[in-house]
Each structure stands twice: as structure tokens, then as C-alpha cells.
Amino acid sequence: MVAPATDTLSIPIIDLDPARSGSSEDTARVAKDVYQAFKHVGFAYIKNHGVPQELIDEAFEWACLRSIAIIEVKLIANEYNRAKGSSHSPQSAKDKAPHPPEGWYHRGYSGIGREKVVQMVFDKEGIAEKRKTPDVKESFELGNETDERMPNIWVPEEVLPGFRAFFTKFFEVCYGVEQLMLKTIAIGMGLQEDFFLNYHQNKTNQCRLLHYPPVEEELLRLGKAERIAAHSDFGTMTILFQDPVGGLEVEDIHEKGKFNPAPFIPGTAVVNIGDLLMRWSNDELKSTLHRVRAPPLVDDSGLSGRMTRPRYSIPYFVSPDRDRVIDCLPGCFGPGRPKKYEPITSREYISMRMNATY
């Protein structure tokens, strides 16, 4: 069920199918593999995860061709806009769903340079220093359609017909993967299989469409621009779909500060542990640092200098219900093993991290 690690890849590949359709013994074996991956690496590739490949392909089609990168292609082709003489430009269309000024209200479109991921920096001076090096990316954030605290901010239907309906469906399918993963993690840790499910009832999750446009290699080399610096994710876990371009790197489990590629593997998603699950487990499970660097470079006579290739990814961030208190799990503390973290609600922790990012 687990593919062995290679010399350059320490992240195991886990087949989830036996946990979905097999016996309790099969589920227990998968749960053990998941637990070992998250204990020792913090990351795993999962296959047979439950999101149909055609749905993933369509999601990337929206992200690449309709939503973020070149939205004008669909606008020009759309009969409604043609008949009305639409004057929407790609940027003006995206700007119709702007991310609010508050960092915690993480919905809608964020343009290049709007967001700057920082790792555990919360003071204004420290954040300002980090923001001197911009993240060259743009994103669109969406969540549960029934979320009253953080309603979705959609591009209007007449501007991008079908976008809302598709990603509402995509969100729900990803939630099914979340449920299976939460079940296997609980079993692997010796808990009741519904332990984590009981903390994730309200679907307070976030689906993100990410586009990294081409950027001059020299800016990255000189430290004048970044994709995303080394960071840990905030919530319970992240389910990531990435394109074949590459660029994701994960900190080496044996050598702090060394990052290894986590390349695209067809038919898989990448899953990693977030800070809240690490806190929950008293560091038994790892919220591993990762980053996005420049993918392999290409020369293009139509561009000035050496440019990186555009990259797309779709992470689905899983978080506990906002008002649930995250405290050390049973069996993860005791004599000689004190609690490392104070109790905190999901809302408090994620808002703190998001406000620093924006």
C-alpha cells in the first residue's frame, strides 16, 4: 500500500482504496501508514483518494483558462459578453471579486504582491521587513457556501458563468477526501475513528486557486522576489493538487534547512499536516516546513531574460470548527511529557496567522 521512498523523495505514496472499500484490517493498515508518514515526514502522496481525475482536470482548466490566468479567453468566447459588447479585461474581471482588507476574511481574489506568507512573525516591524520581498503569485479563495462568518466572494455569474457552480461541487468532493483522511489519522493514533470528524462538522475549509506567473530568474536569484517562502500550514491538514511544472519543496527530515523537491506524480494528491494538528498531537505529528521555488527555467525569445514557467496549484485547507478548543490529545502527554502548547480555538489561531499574512 505504501510505495518506497527514492533517494530524492522521502515522501511515501499511500493507496487509500483499501481504507474505503476493504475490511477493518485493511483500513487499519492504511491508517498505520498514514500515521507513520505524518509522524516522520509530515507529508504523504495519496492515490485513489476519491476525487475523479476528470474533475481535477476541469478544476485546472478553470484555474488556468477561465479564472485566474487568462480569463479574457473565455470572456471573448462567451456569447453573452459578445452580444453585450463586454469590455471586461482580465484584471477588471478578477477585481470584481476582491479579497477584503481584513486578513482573516480569506475569500475572493488577491493580486500579485497582495499576500506575503510569513512564518511565525506577528509584529508590525517584522512583517514589514518580510514584505519587502514580494510573493509573485495571485490567488482566488473560496469556502463553504453556507459559511455565515466568511461568505464567498464570487466573480459575477454573467462575467464567468459556471465558475461558482463548479467549485461549489469541487469543494464538496474534497470534503469527502477530508473525512476519509481524518478517519485514518484517528485510527492510526489509537483514537475512535470519528474523533477528528467530530471537530470538523461545519466545513470551515478553504479551497484556493493559485497561479504563479512567469518571473525573471534574476529577481529570484537576487532575492528581490519569491514564490512562497518556507512556511507551515495553519490548520489540520492540506490536500494539494499540483500541475506538472514543479516547484514545491519540503524540508528534509534528516537535515534542517535542506529542502527536497516534491514533484508532481500523476494520479496522486499531496497531503500534509498543519500547525493545529501538530499542536493537538503535542508534536507527535509534524507540520513540516515547505516552500515553492522557481520551477525549471526556459529561454523564450519573446520574453526579456530567462523566465520561469507559470505554475498552478489547488490546495484544499482543512480546519477544525472555529470555536472548538484545540488541546493536547489523550495519550500525547503525561509524566515526563508535558503539554507544549496552551489550548487555543481554531478561529484564534488561524486568524492570527492570516492577519500576519495580509
From TrEMBL:
Source organism of the structure: Penicillium argentinense
TM ranges: none
UniProt xrefs under PROSITE patterns: FE2OG_OXY (PS51471)
Fe2OG dioxygenase domain boundaries: 203-320
Xref: Pfam families: 2OG-FeII_Oxy (PF03171), DIOX_N (PF14226)
GO biological-process terms attached to the record: small molecule biosynthetic process
Keyword Kinase found: no
InterPro entries: DIOX_N, IPNS-like_FE2OG_OXY, IPNS-like_sf, Iron_ascorbate_oxido_reductase, Oxoglu/Fe-dep_dioxygenase_dom
Top-level lineage group: Eukaryota
Protein's name according to its UniProt entry: Gibberellin 20-oxidase
Family according to the record: Belongs to the iron/ascorbate-dependent oxidoreductase family.
